[in-house]
């Protein structure tokens, strides 16, 4: 999939979020077709990170709410390969989607033009396989601040 031709809508309206959900879903579908083994080797963990259905479900739900997070998903190969482990955390016992995991690994990747990206990886209970759980951009306070002169960036939204 050529990510250079994808136009990601900005804004927080219902239509923009729905379109970003579609973009992320379609991107994952194509990625899974292009990567038959559905995994990439992470240099920091020195292990493969797998893509599963839960990867798409969680990422569509969370990343579609933010323009930058949607852009981050389109950098999936770079994130899976180059993200660095920050810490291990317990799984969220209230989350049905985390039931099959023993714990979660929080990882970070810095992408030019997007900034800091958080990659959450689940550690499977029996096999200890690493599974991409969610990707979101960590928006800095300066990115969230209102633009001083919106006319300089007419397409920019908060």
Provide keyphrases for this structure.
158 residues; alpha+beta; six-stranded mixed sheet
Written overview of the protein:
The protein is built from five helices and six strands; from the N terminus they run αββαααββββα. The chain has 158 residues and is α+β, with helices and mostly antiparallel strands. It has one domain. It has a six-stranded mixed beta sheet with strand order 1-2-6-5-4-3. The protein is globular, with a radius of gyration of 16 Å. Residues 141-158 have low confidence and may be disordered.
Give the biggest beta sheet: 6 strands, mixed
Biggest sheet, strands in spatial order? 1-2-6-5-4-3
Strand portion, in percent?
A: 25-35%
Terminus-to-terminus distance: 28 Å
Query: Strand pairing plus helix content: what structural class?
Result: alpha+beta
Q: How many strands?
A: 6
The radius of gyration over CA amounts to 16 Å
What's the oligomerization state? single chain
Mean pLDDT: 87
Q: Helical content, roughly?
A: 25-40%
List segments where confidence is low: pLDDT < 50 over at least 5 consecutive residues: 141-158
As for the number of domains, it is 1
Number of helices: 5
SSE run? HEEHHHEEEEH
Broad shape:
globular
């Amino acid at each position: 999939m050529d990510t250079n031709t994808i136009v990601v809508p900005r804004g927080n309206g219902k239509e923009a979020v729905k379109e970003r959900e579609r973009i992320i879903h379609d991107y994952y579908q194509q990625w899974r077709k292009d990567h038959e083994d559905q995994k990439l080797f992470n240099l920091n963990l020195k292990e493969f990170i797998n893509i599963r259905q839960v990867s798409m479900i969680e990422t569509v739900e969370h990343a579609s709410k933010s323009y930058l997070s949607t852009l981050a998903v389109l950098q999936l190969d770079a994130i899976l390969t180059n993200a660095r482990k920050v810490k291990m955390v317990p799984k969220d016992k209230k989350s049905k989607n985390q039931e099959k995991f023993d714990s979660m690994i929080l990882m970070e990747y810095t992408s030019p033009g997007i900034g800091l990206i958080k990659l959450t990886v689940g550690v499977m209970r029996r096999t200890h396989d690493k599974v991409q759980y969610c990707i979101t951009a960590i928006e800095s306070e300066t990115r969230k601040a209102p633009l001083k002169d919106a006319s300089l960036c007419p397409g920019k939204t908060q």
